[in-house]
Amino acid sequence: MDLDALFSYEWGAMAPEFIILGVATLLSLLDLFMGKDRDRKPLAWIGIAGIVIAIGFVVSMVGNDVTSILHDTFRLDSFAIAFKLILLVGTGMVLLLAMNYDPNDGIEYRGEFYYLILTALLGGMIMTSSGDLITLFVGLELLSISSYILAGLRKRNKLSNESAMKYVINGVLSTAIFLFGLSYVYGLTGTSNLKELLYAIAGITDKQQMYILAIAFIMIFIGLAFKIASAPFHMWAPDVYQGAPTPVTAFLGVVSKAAGFAIILRIIVTIFGQAPSGDGESGLLLFHLQDYLAFLAGATMIIGNTIALKQRNIKRLMAYSSIAHAGYLLVAFATLSYFMLDTVWFYLVAYLFMNLGFFAILQVLSDKSGSEDISQFAGLYKRSPLTAVALGIFILSLAGFPGTAGFIGKIKIFMGALMTPSHYVLASIMIATTVISYYYYFGMLTQIFFRPAADDSKIKLPIGVLIVIILGVVGTILFGILPGIALDFLQQFENFGDFIG
């Protein structure tokens, strides 16, 4: 490639990625030359400033035409912009938590804490804009490898070491299955470009090739099901959530999960959206495999909510809660409704605010007491009424109570399931498991408002944690009462869901 061709690309489409890459590089250099005894919190503020600037660039791109560069391997479309906003806002809030994270055993490598979160963010952003299987896989591995290291950053903590090891083993296994499925797709079509793949797969007429394509779909989806902690591929999540540092747990539960669903949308809808089933009467492969998706969604909701009932460790409980919420999102995929993209995006936005707000308060309580047992919530209302009310709002939103963003998100998924009569059973499972979840969510509320406190000392919220809680409360209530604000914003993307341009 000569210089003229190099400079002919619209590199402005990658401005947010360049900003995050530059800030991550800057933080690594500053951390290298700072003394060991120097406070690393300024590094977090630099990272947050970089994220704010990147958000500004992303917002400025709203309404622009689809931009494709580097031979269509990187695409800036409305889908990418919408999901990048979730990833950037979520990571910014995680950095606010990370700068105030102070466990009893400490974190020796706090500088790495900040720039590894940014490199994981960069991987997620690349995934959302990938127009090629190769760049998509590069983004996925950048996110995954950074997450593996972050999970084991508390090197002197046995649970952290265990969580990192289990995360690596399961992550490598899922990646292998995912790549195996992609190899079938590439073997059938001879291309890795998503746009070319769509047309190549739509033109397949040989029934044996269609059978291989169905196997490829199942393997790809299984590999990605590991990433989003969908049952029965969820076994790593409880241990990793419990052992990882609390900000990393929040990152995995929100940002990494959002990136995982973004890649599912990119691959499943783009590659298999027009894939033939081999049955001339019933049309597309996706509709033939709806029962498989529905089974995964139902199993994920049931397993996540029922096993959560017996959990005492709050982070393990939230791991199973996260598994259950992945099941709710899979309902939207199983129904394949017209509003699937809008529904998934809104639910992830709602989940971002309520989940990060919950983990912000949990971090303060667990750092203060050195315990993550549910009893640490006992008497919180007497110790800090405003903090208790905020935590109650987050819990009610996670449970899906009216007036919260979580309720609107579940209603949109539920209505999408009712649009197709054959999914009444799946909608019924969603209602039943939501009712089951009230038991452990209300158990936390009972501890907060009706149990005596073992420690009557007041709770002091650091500035970063306070900002996250305020943003969480505002977002949870605002999008619960006025969901049109988020949905109207999404309507500005005239080509949202246009994956091929």
Written account of the structure:
With 501 residues, the protein is mainly α. 72% of the residues lie in helices and 1% in strands. The chain has helices at residues 3-8, 15-33, 41-60, 78-98, 110-128, 133-151, 158-189, 194-202, 207-227, 237-243, 246-272, 285-288, 290-308, 314-335, 340-369, 380-383, 385-399, 405-418, 424-450, 463-481, 484-491; strands at 67-69, 74-76. It has a two-stranded antiparallel ribbon. Helix 3 (41-60) runs antiparallel to helix 4, helix 13 runs antiparallel to helix 14 (314-335) and helix 13 (290-308) packs parallel to helix 19. It is globular. The mean pLDDT is 86. Its EC number is 7.1.1.-.
Order of helices and strands: HHHEEHHHHHHHHHHHHHHHHHH
What class, by secondary structure content? mainly alpha
Strand arrangement across the biggest beta sheet? 1-2
Range of helix content: over 70%
According to DSSP, the number of beta strands is 2
Strand content: under 5%
- Number of DSSP helices? 21
* Radius of gyration based on Cα positions: 22 Å
Low-confidence stretches: none
